[in-house]
Design goal:
Layout lengths: L3 H13 L2 H8 L3 H15 L4 E3 L4 E3 L1 H32 E6 L2 H14 L4 E6 L2 H9 L5 E4 L8 E15 L22 E5 L5 H8 L4 E5 L2 H9 L5 E4 H7 L8 E4 L6 E9 L7 H9 L2
Parallel strand pairs: 3-4, 3-5, 7-8
Antiparallel strand pairs: 1-2, 5-11, 6-9, 6-10, 6-11
Helix pairs in contact: 1-2, 1-3, 1-4
């Protein structure tokens, strides 16, 4: 049986073309690399290289072998990833989120439904979430749009509306009941959390002339907000969860643009339906 490291050396040589460049990439010495090449030829029983005094190059047989080596290495990588993800799925519920707020609520609910299973969370772009779902890195994902795919289940989770968070003296504070569009504050400097997921693109599109001061630590952000007159952001979810303990001197003004409301959907592979049945039943009962 051919050792994987021999295939790695062959693929590297095919990519980099010289012993020196290949040895640097593989972090081994040139003599060690040369011995690996010779060992591979011995195991296959064929000549893979044309050797001259100052040069070594793959012959046609070697190029074919390198092509197969690369395929085998890719398959080995795919197998390792698939096996690890499958084993992890047996003991955990891994959820990928496109926005922070569902990530604040769902883990606690999952812990009630599945007290003996660990649940992991991750905040990613929607493209990465879908990729991870199909690769079994996620048991389910939360997206801002429904999915129609025969292999996927899709349930409505809920919505979130964005607000401007302003001090009482700010000009738009008087519109706390009727709300204002994004354009009312375009050009101002805002305080915001470091990673806001899908909200980031919406803010950039609707507030193209604004600057954003980001703070990843939420406790530090709240301290800054409570001592600053700069506007910030909140949502109906964060107001409900944290209003009693933060930003007590702030007025929350709803943003009236349709982009300021996101509807979330829970998406999962149908082969995980049995595992997620309690969660699916909960979503059905609240739809």
């Amino acid at each position: 049986m051919i050792e994987m490291n021999l295939l790695e050396t062959l693929a590297a040589f095919d990519t980099y073309g010289t012993l020196s460049a290949s040895s640097i990439h593989l972090h081994i010495s040139q003599p060690a690399l040369s011995r690996s090449m010779q060992k591979l030829e011995e195991e296959l029983g064929v000549k893979l290289f044309e050797r001259t005094k100052n040069r070594m190059a793959l012959n046609s047989t070697g190029k074919l072998a390198a092509s197969y080596a690369r395929q085998i290495l890719n398959m080995e990588k795919e197998m390792t990833t698939a096996v690890i993800n499958h084993d992890r799925s047996l003991h955990t519920i891994s959820v990928g989120y496109c926005a922070p707020s569902p990530r604040m609520e769902i883990p606690n609910m999952l812990s009630r439904f599945y007290p003996d299973i660990a649940n992991l969370s991750d905040l990613q772009t929607e493209a990465e979430l879908l990729k991870g779902l199909y690769q079994n890195r996620y048991t389910m994902i939360i997206l801002s749009h429904p999915m129609e795919d025969p292999d996927l289940g899709c349930m409505y989770y809920g919505s979130e509306q964005m607000y401007f968070s302003v001090v009482p003296a700010h000009p738009v504070a008087v519109y706390k009941d009727q709300g204002v569009p994004f354009s009312a504050l375009d050009g101002e400097t805002f305080l915001q959390a470091g990673n806001v997921g899908i909200w980031e693109n919406i803010k950039k599109q609707k507030l193209p002339h604004s600057n954003f001061i980001r703070e990843s630590d939420l406790n530090s952000l709240n301290t800054i907000i409570n001592s600053s007159t700069l506007p910030g952001f909140a949502t109906d979810v964060t107001i409900r969860l944290f209003r009693s303990e933060q930003n007590k001197n702030r007025i929350f003004v709803p943003i009236t643009d349709p982009e300021a409301t996101i509807h979330f959907y829970c998406v999962y592979l149908k082969n995980n339906t049995t595992k997620l049945q309690k969660w699916i039943d909960y979503l059905k009962s609240n739809s």
